[in-house]
Amino acid sequence: MEKVKYNYGYIWLLTIAASMGGFLFGYDWVVVGGAKSFYEPFFGIENSPLQQGWGTSSALIGCMIGALFCFLTTERWGRKWLIAASGIIFIISAFGTALSDTFYWYNVFRIVGGFSIGITLNLSPVYISEMVPPHQRGKFVSINQLLINVGILTSQSINWSIAAAHDTGIGPDSVAFINEWNVQTGWRWMFGAVAVPSLIFFILMIIVPESVRWLVKNKQYDKAEKVLAKIGGGGYAKTEMEEIKKTVAKDDSRMNFGSLLEPKMMKILLLAFFIALLQQWSGMNVTFYYAADIFRQAGYDISGMMLNIAVIGLITVIFSGVAVLVVDKLGRKKLMLFGTLSMSLIYGVIGFLFLKEIKGIMIVAFTLLNVAVYSLTLAPVMWVILSEIFPNRIRGAAMSITAFVIWIGNFSLTFSFPTIRENLGWANNFWLYGVICLAGFVILYFILPETKNKTLEQIEKELVG
User: Fold this and answer.
1) Nearest-angstrom CA–CA distance, 238 and 57
2) Which UniProt keywords apply (predicted)?
């Protein structure tokens, strides 16, 4: 059989275009962590744990709505145009949040931005997995996570640059802090800056084609074959078309809700839900959303907090880059097991440091170590697994429902953290996450299949039959 000569320039274009949605999510995910030190006093919510939790997590309500919207529309409308539309919605959110003068409108536009994220974050991995060569799918789907982490680094660097440039040394305990430029204006620039990459994202998604597997499902065979030929040549296109057609022919031409309730499908859905909730309740979102609070508790001033937060972003980029290189070599299961066990041990140490009130560099060091492990394992590998395990006929809808579960987990964690912290204390809070990670390690050891180096059709045959 003739060796396929892949058009990697084109494959990278498809991957980067879709993964720009991950960049926007990464930016939005952590911009709150730096901006909250300034918008909370501006809106007068710095002494209200409930309002702090709502201000941090309101975007996740939009994420849930966006995920449900995808469930209702993705099989009918396809991947490309929904992802592209999310870029325009994100631009509206960026400007709206930046210009908000009341806590009400701040949350309205945060929810709008969350709606955009809810669309792109579950469709981008699906789009990539349905377009790239099977033997390199793990690598290219992991690019989405790499771009999430580049977005994190960009957001944290912009936050630090803005805050440091206008830091007068007046802290939040001073009555004069409310008049600081960062409190009145700086946080607006932090939120508004993401409008530029949002526009780039929209333009890129206009350029790229619709998902090949969606085109085949909707009997647009000529378009699908042209895209496949551009990816790997005529021979590759014919071979892939036959494989995809066989799968689609075996499946229903249209997915209905009842398909998701079939016993074999429910088994896969429950596995996906568990992996999704484990990633969220591993506690890492607390580090990203409440990094300023963690480092303030560790004894750092505003400039020190912002610098440490920026270093977190750098760590995520480095280790998610390593994940791209190893996910197809080491496999998904080994990385997930290593991640959950390591994080459970690290949380134990962090909890001990807070219990003994050991402040400064030790807390920073173990926090960065935890971020590194997460960025290498749970963060990218979850998306790879979710993009692979669902059968073709339900993939888009199942990813949408799983994304909804992700946002429920994220919202419940983020909204509840200030209250849990007040009642349990810092040490017990981190030990709780350690127990969750340890339980995840044990359960994944028994239930998680390995999917590396398998085509989507092979995975479907093994899981569904």
Assistant:
1) 47
2) Membrane, Transmembrane, Transmembrane helix, Transport
pLDDT at 1: 45
Query: Helices in 99-220 by DSSP H: which ranges?
Result: 103-129, 137-165, 181, 187-192, 195-207, 212-217
* C-alpha closest to that of 39 among 117, 101, 130: 101
In a domain, 96, yes or no: yes
> Is 3 a member of any domain?
no
97: its two tokens: 């949040």
The pLDDT value recorded for residue 244 is: 85
Q: Which of helix, strand or coil describes residue 220?
A: coil
Closest CA to 155 of 167, 147, 145, 166: 147
Distance CA 329, CA 27 (A): 29
| DSSP classification of residue 179 | G
Number of domains in the chain: 1
Average pLDDT over residues 411-423: 87
Alpha-carbon distances, residue 406 vs 103, 256, 417 (angstroms) = 25, 22, 17
- Taking CA 145 as the corner, what is the angle to CA 138 and CA 124, rounded to the nearest 5 degrees? 80
**Which residue segment(s) compose the domain that 266 sits in?**
8-464
Helical segments of 167-301, H only: 181, 187-192, 195-207, 212-217, 221-250, 257-260, 263-281, 284-289, 291-297
Query: Which domain CATH number covers 239?
Result: 1.20.1250.20
pLDDT in tens, 151-178: 988 998 999 899 888 888 787 778 788 9
Task: Provide the 10 A C-beta neighbour count for residue 165.
Answer: 10
The better pLDDT of the pair 308, 87 is held by: 87
Examine residue 408 and state whether it is found in any structural domain, yes or no. yes
Q: What's phi and psi for 4, nearest 5 deg? A: -75, 135
Indicate whether 410 belongs to any domain. Answer: yes
CA quadruple 411, 414, 418, 420: dihedral, nearest 10:
80
Judge whether 381 and 253 are in contact, CB under 8 Å: no
